[in-house]
Amino acid sequence: MVMTRAIALCLVPTDEYSYDRILKFRRAIYQNHDLIGLGIEQQYYFTPHITLGYFGAIPSSEDLPILSNHFTELNQQWVDNETQAFWVYKAELHKFDDMTHYYRQPDWATFEF
Prior knowledge:
Layout: E1 6-10, H1 16-30, H2 33-37, E2 49-54, H3 64-76, E3 90-92, E4 95-98, E5 101-103, E6 110-112
Antiparallel strand pairs: 1-2, 3-6, 4-5
C-alpha cells in the first residue's frame, strides 16, 4: 500500500474468525472510556498493515510511474503465496514523538492473543 507519506505491507486475515478477533480488539481500544477521555479517537477505517517506511518528501509526478512499477514488481512476488502467513500473538502500546522513534514504558498496556 502506498500512502501519501508512507509505504506499508497490507495484512489479510485468513478467515472470518481472525478478522472478527482483530476488529473486536480494535474496538476495545477505541471504545475505552479512559482513552476517549484523553481525546484519542479512531480516525480511519481498519486497514491492517505494517508500515515499512516513510517518504521524506512526496515523489514528483515524473517519478510516480517508476515507483509504481517497482512496487508492482515487488508485489507480484507475494501474490497468491500462502507461505508468507504469520501470526500475531501480542500487541503493545507504544508512543512516538516522531515517526523515527517509538518507545514504551514497562507498565503500559500489553495484550496477548
